[in-house]
Amino acid sequence: MAELKPYRVLIVDDKKDVCDLLAVVLRVLGYPSVAAHSVPQALELLSQPNDIQIVITDLAFPEVDGYYLVEELAKRPNHPPIITLTAYTSLESSVRALRLRAFDYLIKPFDQETVRIAMDRAVRYLQQLRSEEEARQEEERYRHLFEESMDPIIIADTAGQIMDANRRACELLGYRKAELTTMTVRDLQLPDSFWARVPELKEGQ
Predict the structure, then answer these.
(1) SS3 of the chain
(2) Distance CA 124, CA 101 (A)
(3) 77 alpha-carbon distance from chain centroid
(4) Would you say 145 and 176 are in contact if contact means Cβ atoms under 8 Å apart?
(5) pLDDT (tens place) for every residue of the chain, 205 residues total
(6) pTM for the whole structure
(7) In this structure, how many other beta carbons lie within 10 angstroms of the beta carbon of residue 176?
(8) Phi, psi at residue 72, to the nearest 5°?
């Protein structure tokens, strides 16, 4: 068996044999899993602190159906990718689920390879989301340092067009940021107070 990957799967199906078979296939592929045998049970599990990152669910249940689960999860920010289970004779049900923002589907009877392909897609999607979130956080850190710096900072392109300026630069130059970004560096009428703050620039000009 493969080494366990850090992506825990919630299997939702009212048939225990399907849950057991899918759990075995996932375990062979390296994915830990937990099972729920109804939509309310799945929602209860997902409402608690857990490390579930992918959901595989059937759509047909005696009471609350899998479409409701897909709809409810799709309302949540950063919801896990949802892979639906369907039979050949009801492929249109998975198309409906995809319209409700399910991520992918598996056709019964499934085999290890089709499960692997669906899981690989879901993992790539999660990795992309994580990379985007890390980039967003890095941008926020940069923006905070840029704006809160006590030194005046102006960002210009190679032609001298001002692209951005921090709060301190705006204060010293006496312009609003919206005004500065319509100007070039040569357009700046730099007051004495600016050069007093950065004498090394004056010496090198």
Answers:
(1) CCCCCCCEEEEECCCHHHHHHHHHHHHHHCCCEEEECCHHHHHHHHHCCCCEEEEEEECCCCCCCHHHHHHHHHCCCCCCCEEEEEEHHHHHHHHHHHHCCCCEEEEECCCHHHHHHHHHHHHHHHHHHHHHHHHHHHHHHHHHHHHHCCCCCEEECCCCEEEEECHHHHHHHCCCHHHHCCCEHHHCCCCHHHHHHCHHHHHHC
(2) 17
(3) 9
(4) no
(5) 556 678 999 999 999 999 999 999 999 999 999 999 999 999 999 988 888 999 999 988 988 888 999 999 988 888 899 999 887 556 677 677 777 778 888 888 889 999 999 999 999 999 998 888 888 889 999 889 988 998 888 998 888 899 999 999 898 888 899 999 999 888 887 666 655 655 544 444 4
(6) 0.69
(7) 10
(8) -65, -45
Place of tokens 């850090």: 6
Residue 35 amino acid letter:
A
Q: What is the dihedral of CA 81, 126, 16, 101, to 10 degrees?
A: 10
> What token pair was written down for 92?
């249109």
Under a CB-based contact definition with an 8 Å cutoff, are residues 82 and 96 in contact? no
Residue in the structure block whose two tokens are 């392909």: 117
CA-derived radius of gyration, the chain: 27
